[in-house]
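Hi R.,

As promised on Friday, here is the backbone we talked about, encoded as structure tokens. Could you run it through your design pipeline when you get a chance and send me back a sequence?
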């Protein structure tokens, strides 16, 4: 799930963690052994969209990216370099799921899915160039799962002007889901950073009334939108924000910001950034002998966090998610995920890959509703027709709901708490599923 990547040194720890997890798996340790699947996931049996059909079955030759045998989809993401080492696993896992659908279901609407990827280098200029290549050179039917706030900010206008479906965007800036009227061809997959902040603000006021709150955030969409959400969710009669500390994504150290937060008397610290900077903040607090209640952005919720932030230092931190974790290997859906990634060339399973398969499942569901109107408009009608749709990868009580006025797919989740069990770190869900549908929109 997209964030701008922070300074090279903090993030290199996360990249090394990825390599370590993969290496442990290759060695065949008991902890990382793939569980045996009890079955395979499949799309629902929905045959066609329930939205407004503008045409009957359309000749494939008249629709970009559609032939009698193939549906071509595209996406852009950081695929190389430091950021690519972390985030490229998302499109690779989605592609693995599409390969599974092609192999076991014959594709969708009698056509195999081809998934083309372009490297946006986490840069706006490269993001627009990547999307133009996909649309103008590769003639994709739709763009599915593009990743990166800044790259997508540069390309979503182009996609909407050209009426190309821009669906299930893996970028959390609020604007991508908050303007279905002005940008009707864009649909956001992940909860916006504003929605995330609302979760945290309400959790604090309901469970930690009176505590002094601080916010540490990167100077970018994730940070600014997250801070906005915390202020929106926090009950000002119960809690006060006593310090707001931002930092540049090029910073090598955030020691001064952490020190300022401690000196302001912060008791609950909300952090909006990637694992590299989050771990640095935790280590600085430990160095200062300071242990606030940590609330970490959901990109930190994978158990890889413990490879470079000691479990005892992360213990007690909370975050939130909407889907089952890759570590839940006893769950049949997660067992299936491990098998699917292994059999179809996906990455080592993590929470990122679980999310990526979920994204692929929603895409296949939408396509399956489009078979009698396989056009770009037909796809958008199908996406907006998805109501109370549930994947076995989602938590109980969490469904996908979209409409022509609501273009954010996931707006519900549960809280996670970091624990230490037998010396190892583990994230565990607690509390009920909470919904904030429609509450993250700016109304601007």
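Update: got your reply. Pasting your designed sequence below so it's all in one thread:
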């Amino acid at each position: 799930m997209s964030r701008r990547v922070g300074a090279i040194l903090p993030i290199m720890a996360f990249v090394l963690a990825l390599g370590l997890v993969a290496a442990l798996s290759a060695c065949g340790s008991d902890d990382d052994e793939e569980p045996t699947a009890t079955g395979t996931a499949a799309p629902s049996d929905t045959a066609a969209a329930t939205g407004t059909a503008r045409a009957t079955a359309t000749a494939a030759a008249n629709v970009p990216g559609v032939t009698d045998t193939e549906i071509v989809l595209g996406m852009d993401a950081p695929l190389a370099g430091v950021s690519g080492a972390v985030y490229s696993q998302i499109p690779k896992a989605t592609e693995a799921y599409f390969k599974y659908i092609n192999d076991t279901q014959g594709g969708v609407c009698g056509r195999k899915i081809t998934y083309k990827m372009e490297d946006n280098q986490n840069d706006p200029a490269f993001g627009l160039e990547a999307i133009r290549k996909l649309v103008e050179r590769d003639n994709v039917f739709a763009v599915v799962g593009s990743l990166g706030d800044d790259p997508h900010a540069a390309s979503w206008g182009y996609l909407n002007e050209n009426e190309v479906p821009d669906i299930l965007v893996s970028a959390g800036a609020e604007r991508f889901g908050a303007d279905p009227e002005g940008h009707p061809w864009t649909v956001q997959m992940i909860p916006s950073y504003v929605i995330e902040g609302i979760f945290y603000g309400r959790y604090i006021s309901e469970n930690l009334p009176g505590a002094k709150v601080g916010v540490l955030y990167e100077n970018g969409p994730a940070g600014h939108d997250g801070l906005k959400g915390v202020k929106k969710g926090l009950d000002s009669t119960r809690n006060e924000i006593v310090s707001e500390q931002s930092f540049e994504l090029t910073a090598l150290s955030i020691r001064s910001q952490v020190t300022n937060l401690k000196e302001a008397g912060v008791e609950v610290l909300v952090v909006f950034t990637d694992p590299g900077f989050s771990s640095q903040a935790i280590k600085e607090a430990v160095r200062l002998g300071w242990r606030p209640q940590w609330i970490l952005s959901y990109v930190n919720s994978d158990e890889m966090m413990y490879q470079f932030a000691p479990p005892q230092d992360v213990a007690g931190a909370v975050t939130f998610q909407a889907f089952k974790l890759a570590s839940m290997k006893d769950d049949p859906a997660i067992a299936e995920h491990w098998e699917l990634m292994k059999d179809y060339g996906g990455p080592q399973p993590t929470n990122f890959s679980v999310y990526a398969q979920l994204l692929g499942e929603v895409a296949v569901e939408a396509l399956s509703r489009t078979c009698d109107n396989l056009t770009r408009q037909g796809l958008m009608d199908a996406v907006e027709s998805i109501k109370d749709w549930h994947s076995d990868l989602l938590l109980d009580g969490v469904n996908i709901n979209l409409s022509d006025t609501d273009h954010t797919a996931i707006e519900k989740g549960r809280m996670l708490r970091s624990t230490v069990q037998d010396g190892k770190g583990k994230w565990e869900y607690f509390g009920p599923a909470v919904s904030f549908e429609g509450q993250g929109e700016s109304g601007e």
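One thing I noticed while checking it: The chain has two domains: 34-191+328-410, 194-321+413-435.

Thanks again,
M.
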